[in-house]
Write a structure and sequence with these properties.
Tetracycline Repressor, domain 2; about 75% helix
Length: about 220
């Protein structure tokens, strides 16, 4: 939700910037980059367009800042810390669980960023999509490097590491999208869904037990 303030009220620069980012996120998620105007964003925030351009030099700069804002949030940083802890402990199942849980919770808490990115794909807004890839690919690469290391150690089957991460992320994202955005009913609690997806993946990538050699 956008942060509402009385028109004309003065806020510290950091608070005003956060208000504009929240308001822009709300409108971009409902209208896309092409549909939302800086005039509308200013009106929703109770300020003039000049205030927006005082903080952001262009509409594209505002859009990019919205993506950065969500990526740098405390919730995102806490999740990154959790995943690094799992990797340091070689907790394979814990890492997969953390990925699935994060993706589902993201939709449950606030699906605006996901809607914004879907709009970007539908609009062909390559600038927004490219910036999102710049933010997401380093995280994806880090996860892939972990899987590759664990495969070399014999802890995981030798599937393509990227496909392993895509598998757990894909299950969680599709489930969250179907239930949160498209309204498909599901009586199973999210924590049970996460455990189920984690179990499905781990049973598929854990090495099988070696068969004992037959003695003549």
């Amino acid at each position: 939700m956008a942060i509402a303030h009385a028109s004309g009220s003065r806020l510290p620069a950091t608070d005003r910037r956060r208000q504009l980012l929240e308001t822009a996120l709300d409108l971009f998620s409902r209208k896309g980059f092409g549909g939302a105007t800086t005039k509308e964003i200013a009106a929703a925030a109770g300020v003039t367009e000049a205030i927006i351009f005082r903080h952001f030099p262009s509409k594209q700069a505002l859009y990019t800042a919205v993506l950065d804002y969500r990526h740098e949030s405390e919730v995102m940083q806490a999740w990154l810390a959790e995943t690094k802890d799992c990797m340091e402990r070689n907790d394979d199942a814990g890492l997969m669980r953390a990925i699935a849980q994060k993706l589902i919770q993201t939709y449950r808490r606030d699906a605006r960023l996901q809607r914004l990115l879907l709009f970007a794909a539908l609009e062909g807004h390559e600038g927004g999509l490219a910036h999102n890839r710049q933010l997401a690919i380093p995280v994806f690469s880090l996860l892939c490097q972990y899987v590759a290391r664990r495969q070399k150690e014999g802890a995981l089957r030798d599937y393509d590491a990227g496909m392993v991460i895509a598998a757990i992320a894909g299950m969680a994202t599709h489930f969250a999208m179907m239930t949160e955005m498209f309204g498909f009913p599901c009586d199973t609690p999210d924590d049970v869904v996460v455990e189920t997806f984690t179990s499905i993946l781990m049973n598929g990538i854990k090495p099988g037990k070696k068969k004992a050699k037959r003695t003549k």
